[in-house]
Specification:
The complex is a heterodimer of chains A (290) and B (293). With 290 residues, chain A is of the alpha/beta class. Helix content of chain A is 38%, strand content 23%. Chain A is built from ten helices and twelve strands. In chain A, helix 9 packs across helix 10. Chain A is elongated and about 65 Å long. The termini of chain A are far apart. With 293 residues, chain B is mostly helical. Chain B has two domains: 38 residues; 244 residues, MetI-like fold. Chain B has eleven helices and two strands; from the N terminus they run H-H-E-E-H-H-H-H-H-H-H-H-H. Chain B has a two-stranded antiparallel sheet with strand order 1-2. In chain B, a hairpin with a 6-residue loop joins strand 1 and strand 2. The termini of chain B are far apart. Classes of the chains: A alpha/beta (290), B mainly alpha (293).
Chain lengths: 290, 293
């Protein structure tokens, strides 16, 4: 028994050493890594791109992490990542920081994000203005007839606070685009753990109103058209209306790089904008730009 | 020589068993110390009074509102509802299985109870969201079926196996002479059950109920799926509530490490730990009383 173990040792050691030798013999084509950081909304999109990109270029490892758009932009200015994902345009302050660090941030819009407002199919409401939505989700409109609908209570469905969609809806609809406003979702708003839970509840409950990404639309819920204000026409959320920027609850999604992209960074950006990359955009519930 | 080898072996084994024995104590202590270390920092951003007594939970706003009163009340309400459903049902089922059911039924029922305890909570939650929630809404004419009551029903299901199994053991542990004596004095079967056996088994039954409550209080997944998670102070069982456990589960993944939100979630963990600990301690006290008798 002991003899066997002693004899086996070199083989076991060899098994560990061999792959290492194998790896180092391929010197010229050694693996490169690409760090992508930023928006939590875009983490899944970035991850999906990274996986598909890695299949085409097995020698390039792409690491995608979240943390928020601000974190990503800070990281690219500090040089700890190559590409920053952001669900907002960079601020003037960040432009100056980049300039101080010796470069300009290069901006690429890679996808669009549209949030749809959904109700039960039996709800007679078919469109609302941004102000009505704001009052509704802040809990100031407690019954549907105040909006011209049936005599029923309103049940508000929101995503949990950890969701990028929750934050976007709060800042864009409740706070009218000001990220630090005092407005909040009504305390009685139900916090749903997933878009699935919101879809399920709006399909079964004629009092409910909820919101989620454009990709989640199904015939089991009624999608509301939204007007910017009382003078503007209500626009239904579609890929076209989001792309034309006529649907009010939408935003572009950006990738930022240090100066003009080169090398593997350029390859990755080109992949994201390619038909294949844009198909991934659609698959992860965002709106492709092409 | 041989003897000392045996002694060494004895010694090693003894120490290993000792280590295994105290491991759980060490783990509990370490967990509590860790929770305390992370959670205590919440007091830098909010006072103890406004943390435990605050009525609004807006953890990511600036300034954040970190009041967990609605969460504590939500957890207590869901638990109370589940206990009201599960405890009478569980004790009655235990009596039926232990004292009334024919032998063949007894084995079938016992294995069914075991199967019930094996259903994962996420599966129950899934059934809850697709079947129970729309059903309750339509039958009770509620604005929404995502209420504390839905959570209580789900949790009652989960607590039943614990309550039934432990109560049944307690009933079986009542000395046979008690029953024989009661019957010999002319008591009917029912009188024997609720005048004699229930007294003998009471500490065990209370312990069963307490352990069931502990199970209910700490449950997360099914509750998060069916209670609506609205952080409001509830006024009845038929309103949405947000529990302590669901709050941690829903928010911990995205809370930035070192933020006041992160510390607040650990502090919620401390509150949860203390309440669960109190429930289990009570259960233990009753179990011990039962044994001493």
């Amino acid at each position: 028994m002991r003899d066997f173990v002693l004899k086996a040792v070199p083989f076991v050691l060899a098994a560990f050493i061999f792959p290492a030798c194998h790896g180092s013999t391929e010197g010229p084509q050694k693996t490169q890594t690409l760090q992508i950081k930023g928006s939590d909304t875009m983490v899944n999109l970035g991850q999906a791109w990274a996986e598909a990109f890695n299949k085409l270029h097995p020698k390039i490892n792409v690491a995608v992490t979240g943390g928020g758009s601000g974190t990503g932009i800070a990281a690219i200015i500090n040089g700890t990542c190559e590409i920053a994902e952001s669900s907002r345009a960079i601020e003037e302050k960040e432009k100056l920081q980049a300039k101080a660090a010796g470069f300009e941030l290069h901006e690429t819009i890679v996808a669009l994000d549209g949030i749809v407002v959904v109700v039960h199919p039996a709800n007679s409401i078919s469109h609302l203005t941004m102000d009505e939505l704001r009052e509704l989700f802040m809990g100031n409109i407690k019954r549907w007839q105040l909006l011209g609908g049936q005599d029923r209570p309103t049940v508000l469905l929101s995503r949990e606070v950890n969701s990028g969609t929750h934050i976007f809806f709060k800042e864009h609809v409740l706070r009218r685009g000001k990220s630090k406003g005092p407005e909040e979702f009504a305390p009685r708003a139900l916090m749903m753990p997933s878009s699935y839970a919101i879809a399920e509840e709006t399909a079964h409950n004629e009092n409910a109103v909820g919101y989620y990404g454009l990709g989640y639309i199904s015939p089991r819920q009624k999608v509301l058209a939204v007007a910017k204000d009382d003078r503007s026409p209500a626009v239904a959320p579609t890929i076209d209306s989001v792309r034309a920027n006529t649907y009010p609850i939408s935003r572009p999604l950006y990738l930022y790089t240090r100066g003009d992209p080169t090398g593997i960074v350029k390859d990755f950006l080109e992949y994201a904008l390619s038909p294949e990359g844009q198909k991934i955009v659609r698959d992860t519930d965002f709106v492709p730009i092409k | 020589m041989k003897l000392s080898a045996r002694r060494i072996r004895e010694f090693v084994i003894e120490k290993l068993i000792f280590l295994s024995g105290i491991a759980s104590i060490v783990f509990v202590a370490l967990i509590f110390i860790f929770l305390l270390r992370e959670g205590i920092s919440v007091l830098k951003t909010t006072s103890l009074g406004s943390f435990l007594g605050g009525k609004f939970w807006y953890p990511i706003s600036s300034p954040a509102k970190l009041g967990i009163l609605p969460l504590i009340l939500g957890s207590l309400l869901v638990t109370a509802g589940a206990v009201l459903i599960a405890v009478p049902l569980g004790i009655a089922a235990a009596f039926y299985i232990a004292e009334v059911a024919p032998k063949r039924w007894r084995t079938i029922l016992k294995s069914c109870v075991e199967v019930l305890s094996a259903i994962p909570s996420v599966v129950l939650g899934f059934l809850g969201i697709t079947v129970l929630v729309p059903f309750l809404k339509n039958v009770l004419h509620l604005p929404t079926g995502l209420t504390a009551f839905s959570g209580s029903l789900m949790l009652a299901f989960m607590a039943l196996p614990t309550i039934i199994t432990i109560s049944e053991d307690a009933i079986n542990a009542v000395p046979r002479e008690y029953k024989d004596g009661a019957l010999a004095l002319g008591a009917t079967h029912w009188q024997t059950l609720y005048r004699v056996i229930i007294h003998g088994a009471l500490p065990g039954i209370i312990a069963a109920a307490m352990l069931g409550i502990g199970r209910v209080f700490g449950e997360t997944m099914a509750v998060m799926m069916v209670t609506g998670n609205a952080a409001v102070i509830p006024h009845s069982l038929f309103e949405p509530v947000r529990t302590l456990t669901a709050t941690i589960a829903a928010e911990m993944g995205e809370a930035a490490k070192g933020s006041s939100h992160y510390f607040a979630l650990f502090a919620v963990g401390i509150v949860l730990f203390i309440i669960s600990f109190a429930i289990n301690l009570t259960a233990d006290l009753f179990l011990n009383r039962g044994r001493k008798r």
